[in-house]
Structures are given as C-alpha cells and as structure tokens.
Amino acid sequence: MARLNRMIILTAAIAFAALRGAAAEEPALIEFKVLSPATALEMAQAALRNCQDSGYQVAVSVVDRFGTPQILLRDRFAGPHTPDTARRKAWTAISFRSDTLELAKLTTSDQPITNIRFVNDALMVGGGVPVEAAGSIVGGIGVSGAPGGDADDVCARAGIEAIADKIAF
Questions:
Q1: DSSP annotation string for 16-65
Q2: Whose CA, among 25, 32, 79, 130, lies 20 to 30 Å from 7?
Q3: pLDDT digits over 59-105, tens only?
Q4: CA distances from 12 to 2, 4, 24, 27, 76 (A)
C-alpha cells in the first residue's frame, strides 16, 4: 500500500510539473494583426475601381481576420444581392483559409469535402480571397457582381495588390 501511495504521489508530481511547464511556455495573451479601417477602405476602393474599369457594377466587402465586416462598398447599379454575397465570400475565404474560387472546385458534388457547402454563410463561389501578411491572415475581401466568380476574383486580388506594400512585415 505504501508503494502504491508513493506511485500515486510520484505520478501526480510528474503530471503537475508537466502542466506547470506547459503553462509557463504559453503566454497569457496572444498578439495578432488586423487591417486598419483606412487600409481596409483603400483595398475595397481599389477592388471597386478595378471592376469599374472593366465595366462591372459590384459590391466589395472587407472582413477582419475573425469574419466581422469592416467595409462595404456598393456601386450604384450593383444588384441588391451583391452586398451580402460579397460579405459571405470574404467570410468564407477567412473561415476556410482559402480563396473561394479554389473552394468552388474543391467542393463540387464529387469531392470528399462537398458538405462544407452547407456551413451557414459559406459561399463557394469565386470572388473571396483571404488577405495575408507574413503568412498570417489579417482579413478577407469579397467581390460580387461581375459576370462570374473569375472576374470577381480578379477585382479582389487587385484590391489586395493595392495595399501589399502597406501590409508587408
């Protein structure tokens, strides 16, 4: 019995030491980067301008790294569905950490991950792109209203390119 008690105490001491060491290595607060409102607006305006230059009437949405909307711009003749569609594309891009043009291909009915199409608010249509800086997602952009997801994607990427020098770190 004494031997069993010593084993229990020794096991508990080892477990406590391991947990204490793990807690000491992990900081209590975590730092992350997000786009400033001015930078998010600049990106959205550049995406909108790119679509306008191509003759498209669109909506552009920028979300932060958590999917919360930061910016929404809608051209005067963009369809009434485009603001929500743009937001959902941006949300999908950051949620799944991939552009929605690629996700559209990966989630067709013959693919193993097709069921992620049924996640609330997910929209697997081209035009949503995560915004990355130094390998970390700092936001997402979604564009809706151009004639097809490929064209929406081009506009979204033009917006990201417009701020690329500002978010490089």
A1: HHHHHHHHHHS-SS-------HHHHHHHHHHHHHHHHHTT---EEEEEET
A2: 25
A3: 999 999 999 999 999 999 999 999 999 999 999 999 999 999 999 99
A4: 15, 12, 18, 24, 67
Amino acid at 135: G
* Residue 114: CA count within 13 A, CB half-sphere: 5
pTM of the model: 0.83
**Does residue 22 surpass a pLDDT of 80?**
no
Question: Which residues face 168 on adjacent strands?
Answer: none
Average pLDDT of the chain, as a whole number? 90
Strands across the sheet containing 128-133:
69-74, 59-64, 136-144, 128-133
* DSSP-assigned beta bridge partners for residue 139: 64, 131
Residue type, 63: V
| Fold annotation for 37-167 | Beta-Lactamase (3.30.450)
- b/e map 54-79, b = 16+ CB within 10 Å: eebbbbbbbbbbebebbbbbbbeebe
**111 pLDDT higher than 80:** yes
